[in-house]
Amino acid sequence: MAPRARAGVAEAPDRAASRAISEPRLRVEALATEGDAPRWTVRWRIANAGDAAVRIVAALQPHSGFRGAERSLDLVLEGGDVTELALPVAFAGALVENAFVILSVAAGDERWRVLVRARVVPGERGEPRPLTTRITTQPVGSAAR
Prior knowledge:
Elements: E1 26-36, E2 39-48, E3 54-63, E4 66-77, E5 82-91, E6 96-107, E7 110-122, E8 128-142
Antiparallel strand pairs: 1-2, 2-5, 3-4, 3-6, 4-5, 6-7, 7-8
């Protein structure tokens, strides 16, 4: 059995009454940062807290102070699975209050955006230290097959 994400990690709120059956429930937290200024790689732990499988098809970090180009992916997480994802990012070493990692996810025939909001503080070497503060999901239509 794969290890679970640590307690205290932000996750999408349980909105069972209004949620589609296949809405993904992911937990996302930064594990480590590698590299040197201004180019870094942040390793993220992603846990599928739901019962159904999800496929992560892309990741993007769009904030000007914590930016990474969109990256195509093909990661399948069964219910309860945990994986790590390394994403390159440009970070100038200044506090970023409202950074995002946007995951494009397919769950069944539906597509979702998982918006991982983070506060990014500079570490001792100027490296980014993201702290997940909130995770929300938004449907984007049917997944192309």
